[in-house]
Write a structure and sequence with these properties.
mainly alpha; disordered N terminus; single chain; 147 residues; globular; 7 helices
Length: 147
C-alpha cells in the first residue's frame, strides 16, 4: 500500500532536506498539536514510519525522537512544507496527508487542532481539495478496518 517517498539514493541526508525527517516531523506535529502526547498516536506514527521506510525498531525510535525534538524547534510549517513541495510528487503528497490523517484517527478523536493542521499542510503543499478529502475518507476506512 505504501509507495516509497525518497527511497534509498533519492533521500538527501542533510538534516534540513531528509524527507524521512520531514515526514516524521509533520506526523509528529499531528500527534502533538493538541499539546498531549497520546501513546496511540505515537505508536501509529512509529508504525507508519517503520513500514513506509522499512526501518528497524531502533532506527524508527531514533527517527521519532529526532522528529519530536525538531518539531519543537521549528518556527513554522513552511520549514517542512517547502521541502515537500521541492521533492514530493502529487502522489507522495497525498500519501503524506493520508498518513497525517491516520495518526489523527488513531485515538478515534479528530481534534479541531488536528484537522486544522492537516488542512493547512495540504494547502501549503498544494494538494487539491479532492485529494485532501479522499485521504481523510481513506484513513477513516483504514481505522475502521483496524478495529
Amino acid at each position: 500500500m505504501f509507495e516509497q517517498i525518497g527511497n534509498s539514493a533519492d533521500v538527501e541526508m542533510r538534516p534540513n532536506k531528509d524527507v524521512r525527517m520531514i515526514s516524521a516531523a509533520l506526523l509528529a506535529e499531528v500527534a502533538t498539536v493538541d499539546q498531549r502526547l497520546d501513546e496511540r498516536e505515537i505508536a501509529k506514527l512509529s508504525d507508519l514510519l517503520q513500514q513506509h521506510y522499512k526501518l528497524d525498531t531502533d532506527a524508527t525510535t531514533a527517527l521519532v525522537e529526532s522528529a519530536l525534538a525538531r518539531r519543537e524547534q521549528a518556527t513554522s510549517l513552511y520549514e517542512f512544507t517547502q521541502t515537500v513541495n521541492d521533492q514530493f510528487s502529487e502522489q507522495d503528497k497525498y500519501l503524506l496527508v493520508l498518513q497525517m490523517w491516520q495518526v489523527a484517527f488513531s485515538d478515534d478523536v479528530i481534534e479541531a487542532f488536528e484537522e486544522h493542521l492537516i488542512r493547512r499542510v495540504a494547502e501549503l503543499i498544494y494538494l487539491p481539495h479532492g485529494l485532501f478529502t479522499r485521504a481523510r475518507a481513506e484513513a477513516r476506512e483504514l481505522r475502521k478496518a483496524e478495529k
